[in-house]
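If your schedule permits, I should be very grateful for your opinion on a structural question. Please examine both parts with care and let me know of anything in them that strikes you as inconsistent. The record follows directly beneath this note:
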Amino acid sequence: MKKFSMPKALTLFALLFPVAVMAQEGAYTVSLDYGPGVTNKIMFNRFTLSTGGKKDTAITLNGKATFSGIVNDERQRGQLIVIEGDYQRGGLFYLEPGKININYQGKHPVISGTPLNEDYQVFRELLNATVDSANVNNTGRPVTEFDPGMMNARFNVIMKFMAARPKSEISVDLLNEIGVRFKDKVQMVAAYDKLTASAKKTPQGIELRNRIKGLGAAKVGDMAPVFTTPDTEGKNVSLADYKGKYVLIDFWATWCVPCIAEMPNLVKAYSTYKDKNFDILGVSLERPDSKELWLKVIKRDNLTWKHVSDMKWWNCTPALLYNVSSVPANFLVDPQGKIIATNLRGEELQKKLAEILL
Protein backbone atom coordinates (compact mmCIF):
# COMPACT_ATOMS: atom_id res chain seq x y z
CA MET A 1 0.00 0.00 0.00
CA LYS A 2 1.50 3.33 -1.05
CA LYS A 3 1.62 6.30 1.28
CA PHE A 4 0.96 9.73 -0.16
CA SER A 5 1.48 13.25 0.94
CA MET A 6 1.09 15.52 -2.13
CA PRO A 7 1.52 19.21 -2.95
CA LYS A 8 1.38 21.78 -6.02
CA ALA A 9 0.36 22.28 -9.59
CA LEU A 10 -0.80 20.58 -12.85
CA THR A 11 -4.06 19.60 -14.59
CA LEU A 12 -5.03 16.90 -16.95
CA PHE A 13 -1.32 16.09 -16.66
CA ALA A 14 -1.03 13.69 -19.53
CA LEU A 15 1.57 11.34 -18.24
CA LEU A 16 -0.34 8.88 -20.30
CA PHE A 17 2.64 6.71 -21.07
CA PRO A 18 3.43 3.78 -18.80
CA VAL A 19 6.23 4.33 -16.32
CA ALA A 20 8.57 1.40 -16.82
CA VAL A 21 9.75 -0.48 -13.76
CA MET A 22 12.79 -2.72 -13.73
CA ALA A 23 12.71 -6.17 -12.22
CA GLN A 24 14.16 -5.07 -8.89
CA GLU A 25 12.81 -5.28 -5.38
CA GLY A 26 12.91 -2.61 -2.69
CA ALA A 27 11.34 0.53 -1.27
CA TYR A 28 10.95 3.74 -3.24
CA THR A 29 10.04 7.31 -2.34
CA VAL A 30 9.12 9.90 -4.96
CA SER A 31 9.41 13.57 -3.97
CA LEU A 32 7.75 16.08 -6.28
CA ASP A 33 8.39 19.83 -6.18
CA TYR A 34 6.23 22.16 -8.26
CA GLY A 35 7.24 25.35 -6.48
CA PRO A 36 4.97 27.47 -4.27
CA GLY A 37 1.61 26.56 -5.00
CA VAL A 38 -1.65 25.31 -6.09
CA THR A 39 -3.76 22.39 -4.93
CA ASN A 40 -4.20 19.47 -7.34
CA LYS A 41 -5.82 16.08 -7.22
CA ILE A 42 -3.53 13.40 -8.63
CA MET A 43 -4.24 9.76 -9.45
CA PHE A 44 -1.42 7.23 -9.31
CA ASN A 45 -2.08 4.03 -11.25
CA ARG A 46 0.34 1.16 -10.83
CA PHE A 47 -0.11 -2.19 -12.57
CA THR A 48 1.78 -5.27 -13.74
CA LEU A 49 1.68 -7.22 -17.00
CA SER A 50 -0.14 -10.13 -15.36
CA THR A 51 -2.57 -8.35 -13.02
CA GLY A 52 -4.93 -5.42 -13.06
CA GLY A 53 -4.15 -1.97 -11.80
CA LYS A 54 -4.02 -0.43 -8.35
CA LYS A 55 -5.15 3.17 -8.14
CA ASP A 56 -4.54 5.77 -5.44
CA THR A 57 -5.39 9.46 -5.37
CA ALA A 58 -3.85 12.27 -3.38
CA ILE A 59 -4.10 16.05 -3.01
CA THR A 60 -1.03 18.25 -3.38
CA LEU A 61 -0.28 20.64 -0.54
CA ASN A 62 1.92 23.75 -0.63
CA GLY A 63 3.59 22.83 -3.91
CA LYS A 64 5.15 19.58 -2.75
CA ALA A 65 4.25 15.92 -2.98
CA THR A 66 5.67 12.61 -1.87
CA PHE A 67 4.55 9.04 -2.28
CA SER A 68 6.20 5.77 -1.41
CA GLY A 69 5.82 2.04 -1.79
CA ILE A 70 7.56 -1.21 -2.68
CA VAL A 71 8.81 -2.32 -6.07
CA ASN A 72 8.52 -6.11 -6.22
CA ASP A 73 10.44 -8.49 -8.45
CA GLU A 74 7.88 -8.45 -11.28
CA ARG A 75 8.13 -5.92 -14.07
CA GLN A 76 5.51 -3.26 -13.47
CA ARG A 77 4.11 -0.07 -14.94
CA GLY A 78 2.90 3.10 -13.30
CA GLN A 79 0.95 6.14 -14.38
CA LEU A 80 0.30 9.56 -12.89
CA ILE A 81 -2.67 11.59 -14.06
CA VAL A 82 -3.63 14.99 -12.70
CA ILE A 83 -7.40 15.02 -12.68
CA GLU A 84 -7.94 18.45 -11.08
CA GLY A 85 -5.69 21.49 -10.88
CA ASP A 86 -4.49 24.74 -12.39
CA TYR A 87 -2.10 23.84 -15.20
CA GLN A 88 -0.64 20.93 -17.11
CA ARG A 89 2.78 19.60 -16.12
CA GLY A 90 3.97 16.07 -16.45
CA GLY A 91 6.78 13.74 -17.36
CA LEU A 92 7.72 10.09 -17.32
CA PHE A 93 9.96 8.54 -14.72
CA TYR A 94 11.19 5.10 -13.71
CA LEU A 95 9.85 3.58 -10.54
CA GLU A 96 12.82 1.85 -8.89
CA PRO A 97 14.17 1.34 -5.35
CA GLY A 98 15.57 4.49 -3.79
CA LYS A 99 14.68 8.17 -3.47
CA ILE A 100 13.44 9.72 -6.70
CA ASN A 101 13.28 13.52 -6.99
CA ILE A 102 11.23 15.29 -9.67
CA ASN A 103 11.41 19.07 -9.92
CA TYR A 104 8.73 20.75 -12.03
CA GLN A 105 9.73 24.37 -11.46
CA GLY A 106 11.58 24.86 -14.74
CA LYS A 107 10.39 24.61 -18.33
CA HIS A 108 10.79 20.82 -18.22
CA PRO A 109 10.76 18.35 -15.33
CA VAL A 110 14.18 17.38 -13.93
CA ILE A 111 14.40 13.82 -12.60
CA SER A 112 17.22 12.67 -10.32
CA GLY A 113 18.15 10.44 -7.42
CA THR A 114 18.29 6.88 -8.82
CA PRO A 115 20.45 5.31 -11.55
CA LEU A 116 17.77 4.67 -14.17
CA ASN A 117 16.21 8.08 -13.68
CA GLU A 118 19.57 9.85 -13.93
CA ASP A 119 20.11 8.06 -17.25
CA TYR A 120 16.57 8.77 -18.43
CA GLN A 121 17.04 12.47 -17.64
CA VAL A 122 19.91 12.58 -20.17
CA PHE A 123 17.55 11.25 -22.84
CA ARG A 124 14.82 13.71 -21.84
CA GLU A 125 17.20 16.65 -22.16
CA LEU A 126 18.15 15.60 -25.71
CA LEU A 127 14.50 15.19 -26.66
CA ASN A 128 13.36 18.41 -24.96
CA ALA A 129 15.99 20.38 -26.89
CA THR A 130 14.71 18.91 -30.16
CA VAL A 131 11.09 19.78 -29.35
CA ASP A 132 12.03 23.27 -28.15
CA SER A 133 13.88 23.86 -31.43
CA ALA A 134 10.78 22.84 -33.40
CA ASN A 135 8.76 25.43 -31.47
CA VAL A 136 11.06 28.36 -32.23
CA ASN A 137 9.06 30.92 -34.25
CA ASN A 138 6.01 28.64 -34.02
CA THR A 139 2.91 30.83 -33.63
CA GLY A 140 0.37 28.00 -33.70
CA ARG A 141 -0.33 25.16 -31.30
CA PRO A 142 2.91 24.11 -29.56
CA VAL A 143 4.58 21.09 -31.12
CA THR A 144 4.95 18.05 -28.82
CA GLU A 145 7.21 15.02 -29.11
CA PHE A 146 4.18 12.89 -29.97
CA ASP A 147 2.96 14.90 -32.97
CA PRO A 148 3.09 12.81 -36.18
CA GLY A 149 5.52 15.33 -37.67
CA MET A 150 7.96 14.78 -34.79
CA MET A 151 8.11 10.99 -35.01
CA ASN A 152 11.22 10.92 -37.21
CA ALA A 153 12.96 13.48 -35.00
CA ARG A 154 12.13 11.44 -31.90
CA PHE A 155 13.43 8.30 -33.61
CA ASN A 156 16.72 10.08 -34.41
CA VAL A 157 17.11 11.29 -30.81
CA ILE A 158 16.60 7.74 -29.55
CA MET A 159 19.20 6.38 -31.97
CA LYS A 160 21.65 9.10 -30.86
CA PHE A 161 21.10 8.25 -27.19
CA MET A 162 21.53 4.52 -27.85
CA ALA A 163 24.79 5.10 -29.71
CA ALA A 164 26.14 7.14 -26.78
CA ARG A 165 24.87 4.77 -24.04
CA PRO A 166 24.81 1.18 -25.35
CA LYS A 167 25.05 -0.21 -21.78
CA SER A 168 21.96 1.63 -20.60
CA GLU A 169 18.75 -0.21 -19.76
CA ILE A 170 17.03 2.93 -21.02
CA SER A 171 18.47 2.16 -24.46
CA VAL A 172 16.88 -1.29 -24.33
CA ASP A 173 13.48 0.17 -23.42
CA LEU A 174 13.71 2.82 -26.13
CA LEU A 175 14.62 0.24 -28.76
CA ASN A 176 11.60 -1.78 -27.69
CA GLU A 177 9.50 1.37 -28.11
CA ILE A 178 10.66 2.30 -31.61
CA GLY A 179 10.97 -1.20 -33.03
CA VAL A 180 7.89 -0.70 -35.18
CA ARG A 181 9.60 2.15 -37.07
CA PHE A 182 12.33 -0.05 -38.52
CA LYS A 183 11.55 -1.02 -42.11
CA ASP A 184 12.83 -4.58 -41.78
CA LYS A 185 14.35 -7.12 -39.44
CA VAL A 186 17.88 -6.39 -40.68
CA GLN A 187 17.71 -2.78 -39.43
CA MET A 188 16.25 -3.84 -36.10
CA VAL A 189 18.96 -6.46 -35.56
CA ALA A 190 21.66 -3.92 -36.47
CA ALA A 191 20.37 -1.56 -33.75
CA TYR A 192 20.10 -4.42 -31.24
CA ASP A 193 23.67 -5.53 -31.94
CA LYS A 194 24.95 -2.11 -30.81
CA LEU A 195 23.75 -2.81 -27.26
CA THR A 196 26.33 -4.23 -24.86
CA ALA A 197 26.17 -7.82 -23.63
CA SER A 198 25.07 -6.64 -20.17
CA ALA A 199 22.16 -4.66 -21.62
CA LYS A 200 21.08 -7.66 -23.70
CA LYS A 201 21.02 -9.86 -20.57
CA THR A 202 18.50 -7.67 -18.72
CA PRO A 203 14.90 -8.96 -18.64
CA GLN A 204 13.98 -6.24 -21.13
CA GLY A 205 16.93 -7.18 -23.34
CA ILE A 206 15.83 -10.82 -23.38
CA GLU A 207 12.27 -9.73 -24.18
CA LEU A 208 13.59 -7.59 -27.03
CA ARG A 209 15.62 -10.49 -28.43
CA ASN A 210 12.55 -12.74 -28.38
CA ARG A 211 10.55 -10.11 -30.25
CA ILE A 212 13.25 -9.78 -32.87
CA LYS A 213 13.16 -13.56 -33.39
CA GLY A 214 9.51 -13.23 -34.32
CA LEU A 215 9.95 -10.34 -36.74
CA GLY A 216 8.67 -11.06 -40.22
CA ALA A 217 5.60 -12.97 -38.98
CA ALA A 218 3.44 -10.37 -40.74
CA LYS A 219 5.19 -8.44 -43.51
CA VAL A 220 4.40 -6.93 -46.88
CA GLY A 221 3.61 -9.69 -49.36
CA ASP A 222 2.34 -12.14 -46.72
CA MET A 223 -1.27 -13.14 -46.32
CA ALA A 224 -2.66 -11.30 -43.30
CA PRO A 225 -3.14 -13.65 -40.31
CA VAL A 226 -6.87 -14.01 -39.65
CA PHE A 227 -8.13 -13.34 -36.11
CA THR A 228 -11.50 -13.18 -34.39
CA THR A 229 -11.89 -10.75 -31.48
CA PRO A 230 -14.81 -9.20 -29.54
CA ASP A 231 -16.01 -5.74 -30.55
CA THR A 232 -17.29 -2.96 -28.29
CA GLU A 233 -20.56 -4.87 -27.78
CA GLY A 234 -18.89 -8.19 -27.10
CA LYS A 235 -19.71 -9.64 -30.53
CA ASN A 236 -16.96 -11.50 -32.34
CA VAL A 237 -15.52 -9.81 -35.41
CA SER A 238 -13.23 -11.66 -37.82
CA LEU A 239 -10.74 -10.21 -40.25
CA ALA A 240 -12.29 -12.67 -42.73
CA ASP A 241 -15.40 -10.48 -42.67
CA TYR A 242 -13.43 -7.84 -44.59
CA LYS A 243 -12.46 -10.05 -47.52
CA GLY A 244 -13.07 -8.21 -50.78
CA LYS A 245 -12.17 -4.81 -49.27
CA TYR A 246 -9.04 -2.84 -48.59
CA VAL A 247 -8.77 -2.74 -44.80
CA LEU A 248 -6.34 -0.94 -42.51
CA ILE A 249 -5.73 -2.97 -39.34
CA ASP A 250 -4.85 -0.28 -36.81
CA PHE A 251 -3.21 -1.35 -33.54
CA TRP A 252 -3.59 1.34 -30.88
CA ALA A 253 -4.46 1.91 -27.20
CA THR A 254 -6.17 4.57 -25.11
CA TRP A 255 -2.99 4.98 -23.02
CA CYS A 256 -0.84 5.59 -26.13
CA VAL A 257 -0.36 9.32 -26.75
CA PRO A 258 1.10 8.93 -30.29
CA CYS A 259 -1.90 6.72 -31.17
CA ILE A 260 -4.35 9.40 -30.08
CA ALA A 261 -2.34 12.06 -31.94
CA GLU A 262 -2.67 10.03 -35.16
CA MET A 263 -6.46 9.56 -34.88
CA PRO A 264 -7.45 12.76 -36.79
CA ASN A 265 -5.48 11.41 -39.74
CA LEU A 266 -7.40 8.12 -39.59
CA VAL A 267 -10.71 9.96 -39.29
CA LYS A 268 -9.81 11.90 -42.45
CA ALA A 269 -8.83 8.72 -44.30
CA TYR A 270 -12.01 6.91 -43.29
CA SER A 271 -14.24 9.83 -44.22
CA THR A 272 -12.57 10.18 -47.62
CA TYR A 273 -12.44 6.52 -48.67
CA LYS A 274 -15.11 4.58 -46.75
CA ASP A 275 -17.35 4.56 -49.83
CA LYS A 276 -14.50 3.42 -52.09
CA ASN A 277 -14.12 -0.18 -50.88
CA PHE A 278 -11.99 0.82 -47.89
CA ASP A 279 -12.46 0.18 -44.17
CA ILE A 280 -10.54 0.38 -40.91
CA LEU A 281 -10.49 -2.25 -38.17
CA GLY A 282 -9.20 -0.86 -34.89
CA VAL A 283 -7.46 -3.32 -32.56
CA SER A 284 -6.85 -1.85 -29.12
CA LEU A 285 -4.37 -3.18 -26.57
CA GLU A 286 -6.45 -2.45 -23.49
CA ARG A 287 -6.03 -3.63 -19.90
CA PRO A 288 -8.82 -5.69 -18.30
CA ASP A 289 -10.08 -2.68 -16.32
CA SER A 290 -10.12 -0.11 -19.15
CA LYS A 291 -13.20 -0.95 -21.24
CA GLU A 292 -15.11 2.11 -20.06
CA LEU A 293 -12.25 4.42 -21.05
CA TRP A 294 -11.89 2.60 -24.40
CA LEU A 295 -15.56 3.20 -25.25
CA LYS A 296 -15.31 6.83 -24.11
CA VAL A 297 -12.29 7.61 -26.32
CA ILE A 298 -13.91 5.96 -29.37
CA LYS A 299 -16.96 8.20 -28.92
CA ARG A 300 -15.02 11.35 -28.00
CA ASP A 301 -12.71 11.19 -31.01
CA ASN A 302 -15.43 10.17 -33.48
CA LEU A 303 -13.76 6.87 -34.38
CA THR A 304 -16.76 5.47 -36.25
CA TRP A 305 -15.21 2.34 -37.74
CA LYS A 306 -15.32 -1.09 -36.06
CA HIS A 307 -13.15 -1.61 -32.96
CA VAL A 308 -12.13 -4.83 -31.24
CA SER A 309 -10.17 -5.74 -28.11
CA ASP A 310 -9.76 -8.87 -25.99
CA MET A 311 -8.68 -6.62 -23.08
CA LYS A 312 -5.42 -8.56 -22.63
CA TRP A 313 -3.05 -5.57 -22.99
CA TRP A 314 0.29 -6.77 -24.49
CA ASN A 315 -1.02 -10.33 -24.58
CA CYS A 316 -3.64 -9.21 -27.13
CA THR A 317 -4.02 -12.16 -29.52
CA PRO A 318 -4.04 -10.14 -32.78
CA ALA A 319 -0.96 -8.21 -31.61
CA LEU A 320 0.88 -11.47 -30.97
CA LEU A 321 -0.16 -12.80 -34.39
CA TYR A 322 1.21 -9.69 -36.08
CA ASN A 323 4.24 -9.47 -33.77
CA VAL A 324 3.24 -5.97 -32.66
CA SER A 325 5.73 -4.90 -29.99
CA SER A 326 4.82 -1.20 -29.86
CA VAL A 327 1.92 1.01 -30.84
CA PRO A 328 0.79 2.69 -33.00
CA ALA A 329 1.23 0.06 -35.72
CA ASN A 330 -0.88 -0.72 -38.77
CA PHE A 331 -1.17 -3.11 -41.71
CA LEU A 332 -2.91 -2.32 -44.99
CA VAL A 333 -4.52 -5.44 -46.45
CA ASP A 334 -5.83 -5.78 -50.02
CA PRO A 335 -9.16 -7.40 -51.04
CA GLN A 336 -7.44 -10.78 -51.43
CA GLY A 337 -6.14 -10.67 -47.86
CA LYS A 338 -2.51 -9.81 -48.66
CA ILE A 339 -0.53 -7.23 -46.67
CA ILE A 340 0.49 -4.47 -49.10
CA ALA A 341 1.89 -1.84 -46.70
CA THR A 342 2.72 -1.36 -43.02
CA ASN A 343 2.98 1.51 -40.55
CA LEU A 344 1.47 4.19 -42.79
CA ARG A 345 0.95 7.46 -40.91
CA GLY A 346 0.21 11.08 -41.71
CA GLU A 347 0.61 11.98 -45.36
CA GLU A 348 2.08 8.55 -46.15
CA LEU A 349 -1.30 6.97 -45.42
CA GLN A 350 -3.23 9.55 -47.45
CA LYS A 351 -0.82 9.16 -50.38
CA LYS A 352 -1.04 5.35 -50.39
CA LEU A 353 -4.83 5.30 -50.21
CA ALA A 354 -5.11 7.85 -53.04
CA GLU A 355 -2.74 5.69 -55.10
CA ILE A 356 -4.86 2.54 -54.82
CA LEU A 357 -8.40 3.90 -54.45
CA LEU A 358 -8.62 6.95 -56.74
